[in-house]
């Protein structure tokens, strides 16, 4: 119990004092996972749309593949990205291993199937005649996609939240490809692992609370957007 | 969405901003090392000094010694700082590690519950102690191919016991800090380096039961990863790092590290000494600090 109480006290103290290392870790966490989520949306929304609307052979197979990807263990993604980017790997020359960009790449790969899956599900929930109707009213493809996105807003924002939530709380891939370097690739989750193995349990717990708070604030903004009446 | 996107885009730009130190001429290097040098806080305390002197940023990848050596073999690191001399020799023989220097040592401790159900307290031979533990007491192993596990396996061998046959031996597959916490919860015996044990401080009720034997020495060497086998290695920077680790001023920092907090040093600087002389009375002050807890 005393550790838990100490953890809360430590969290308040770190936040109240504006600990510069804590803030840099928080901002870094937000930037890396935010960038990965943004990229996952850019790639995942059109793919999810195509998957939901397309009529082609192997659609069920692809959807099953995406649904499997939604539960892909992050640590495996991390290992594969590590093997690709490490110096002796095929893309070692890019010198990306143990950088924030490598972390964005790994988190992007984890989030994208989630975004595709949620997008496909929310687009499939729309009335099936809607795209044809829009086309007959003279909307081009981009315009159609835009209007459908607005109609599917609830689902798309759920996709953002699911993607962001998965990667901001993920530790395996971030540790493997980022290396948990202090001041450069250490994010909240990997810092929690470090502090735990150092026996600094109150600090570890405090970081956990900060992570929770961060996730809550991001979700609060997204949920507010989601619940706002379309206008 | 309209407001979120610019914020995310701005964060993307920030990701690409170069780090202050990386903007300077010398390149960053990757140091593959053990969890103990990181978890004890030693590297956090001396690497800023190195950065200031050389402008070289060291990316510390703290893994088990086995994984650190493997990174060297693949050419994924520029330098290593490890503590498993027997394994290191294989990588020196294969030509993956060059220019090795003895940096420092501390020692391993056999720790366990105060009540000491296996009755090993005061034994001088750790192998004999393990043989007693094997009979009926729980033992927690790292199980992660670290230098500490390699040492543990060496000791089982000396004890003439196959660890796979020990009923109450469990492997965590985690670092030293996490493994000690598991041993604490189970009130089990484990082998630990002194630095991590001291760093966990009052988290633990486990006590050192066997210490001070020559076979418990924990010796750290630094190496440059061979640039002839691995052309991508940043030789100049890696050499500068190894030279820094054995420089007199750094050695003084190593010797002083942790004294204020623990009342004894966590590492004993050894640059220029012969490995065979370590741990003998008179070659370092370690015996005076032993058994403090």
Topology:
The complex is a heterodimer of chains A (231) and B (293).
Chain A lengths: L1 H16 L2 H34 L5 H11 L4 H12 L14 H25 L5 H7 L4 H11 L1 H16 L3 H7 L9 H10 L3 H27 L4
Chain B lengths: L3 H13 L12 E5 L1 H5 L2 H13 L3 E5 L2 H9 L5 E4 L2 H9 L3 E16 L13 H11 L2 E3 L5 H13 L9 E3 L4 H11 L2 E5 H7 L6 E4 L6 E9 L9 H12 L1 H9 L2 H4 L5 E2 L16 H4 L4
Helix pairs in contact in B: 6-7
Characterize the structure shown.
The complex is a heterodimer of chains A (231) and B (293). Chain A is mainly α. Chain A has a single domain, classed as MetI-like fold. Helix content of chain A is 76%, strand content 0%. Chain A contains eleven helices and no strands. Chain A has helices spanning 2-17, 20-53, 59-69, 74-85, 100-124, 130-136, 141-151, 153-168, 172-178, 188-197, 201-227. In chain A, helix 2 (20-53) crosses helix 8 and helix 8 runs antiparallel to helix 11. Chain A starts with a helix and ends with a helix. With 293 residues, chain B is an alpha/beta fold. Chain B has two domains: 22-105 and 218-276, D-Maltodextrin-Binding Protein, domain 2; 107-216, D-Maltodextrin-Binding Protein, domain 2, CATH 3.40.190.10. Chain B contains 13 helices and ten strands. Chain B has helices at residues 4-16, 35-39, 42-54, 65-73, 85-93, 126-136, 147-159, 176-186, 194-200, 235-246, 248-256, 259-262, 286-289; strands spanning 29-33, 58-62, 79-82, 97-112, 139-141, 169-171, 189-193, 207-210, 217-225, 268-269. In chain B, strands 1, 2, 3, 4, 5, 6, 7, 8, 9 and 10 form a ten-stranded mixed β-sheet that branches. In chain B, helix 6 (126-136) crosses helix 7. Chain B is globular, with a radius of gyration of 21 Å. The N and C termini of chain B lie far apart (58 Å). The A-B interface holds A 30-32, 34-35, 37-38, 86-88, 92, 97-98, 100-101, 104, 157, 179-184, 194, 196-199, 201, 221-222, 225 and B 1, 4-5, 7-9, 11-12, 14-16, 19, 30, 35, 38-39, 41, 44, 59-62, 74-76, 174-178, 180-181, 199-201, 203, 230, 232.
């Amino acid at each position: 119990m005393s550790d838990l109480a100490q953890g809360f006290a430590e969290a308040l103290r770190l936040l109240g004092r504006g600990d510069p290392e804590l803030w840099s870790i928080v901002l870094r966490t937000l930037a890396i996972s935010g960038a990965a989520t943004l990229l996952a949306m850019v790639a995942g929304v059109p793919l999810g749309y195509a998957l939901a609307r397309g009529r082609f052979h192997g659609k069920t197979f692809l959807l099953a593949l995406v649904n499997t990807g939604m539960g892909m263990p992050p640590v495996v993604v991390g290992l594969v990205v590590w093997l690709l980017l490490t110096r002796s790997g095929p893309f070692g020359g890019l010198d990306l291993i143990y950088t924030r960009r490598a972390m964005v790449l790994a988190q992007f790969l984890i989030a994208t199937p989630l975004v595709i899956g949620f997008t496909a599900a929310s687009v499939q929930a729309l009335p099936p005649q809607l795209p044809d109707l829009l086309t007959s009213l003279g909307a081009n493809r981009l315009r159609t996609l835009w209007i459908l996105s607005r109609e599917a807003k609830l689902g798309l924002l759920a996709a953002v939240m699911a993607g962001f939530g998965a990667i901001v709380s993920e530790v395996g891939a971030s540790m493997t490809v980022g290396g948990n370097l202090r001041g450069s690739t250490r994010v909240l989750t990997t810092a929690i692992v470090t502090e735990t193995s150092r026996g600094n349990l109150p600090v570890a717990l405090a970081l956990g609370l900060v992570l929770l708070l961060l996730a809550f604030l991001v979700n609060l903004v997204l949920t507010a957007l989601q619940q706002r009446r379309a206008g | 969405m309209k407001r979120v996107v610019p914020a995310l885009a701005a964060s993307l730009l920030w990701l690409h901003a170069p780090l202050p130190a990386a903007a300077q001429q010398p390149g960053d290097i990757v140091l593959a090392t053990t969890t103990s040098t990181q978890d004890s806080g030693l590297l956090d305390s001396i690497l800023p000094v190195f950065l200031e002197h050389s402008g070289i940023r060291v990316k510390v990848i703290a893994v088990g010694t086995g994984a650190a050596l493997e990174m060297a073999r693949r050419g994924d690191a520029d330098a290593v700082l490890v503590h498993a001399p027997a394994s290191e020799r294989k990588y020196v023989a294969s030509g993956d590690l060059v220019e090795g220097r003895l940096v420092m040592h501390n020692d391993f401790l056999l720790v366990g519950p105060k009540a000491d159900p296996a009755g090993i307290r005061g034994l001088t031979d750790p192998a004999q102690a393990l043989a007693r533990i094997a009979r009926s007491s729980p033992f927690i192993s790292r199980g992660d191919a670290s230098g500490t596990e390699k040492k543990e396996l060496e000791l089982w061998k000396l004890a003439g016991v196959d660890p796979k046959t020990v009923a109450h031996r469990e492997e965590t597959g985690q670092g030293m800090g996490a493994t000690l916490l598991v041993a604490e919860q189970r009130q089990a015996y484990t082998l630990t380096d002194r630095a991590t044990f001291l760093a966990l401080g009052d988290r633990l009720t486990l006590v050192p039961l066997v210490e001070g034997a020559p076979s418990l020495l924990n010796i750290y060497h630094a190496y440059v990863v061979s640039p002839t086998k691995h052309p991508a290695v940043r030789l100049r920077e890696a050499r500068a790092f190894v030279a820094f680790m054995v420089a007199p001023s750094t050695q003084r920092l190593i010797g002083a590290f942790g004294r204020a907090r623990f009342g004894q040093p966590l590492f004993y600087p050894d640059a220029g000494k012969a490995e065979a002389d370590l741990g003998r009375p008179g070659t370092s002050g370690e015996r005076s600090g032993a058994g403090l807890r």
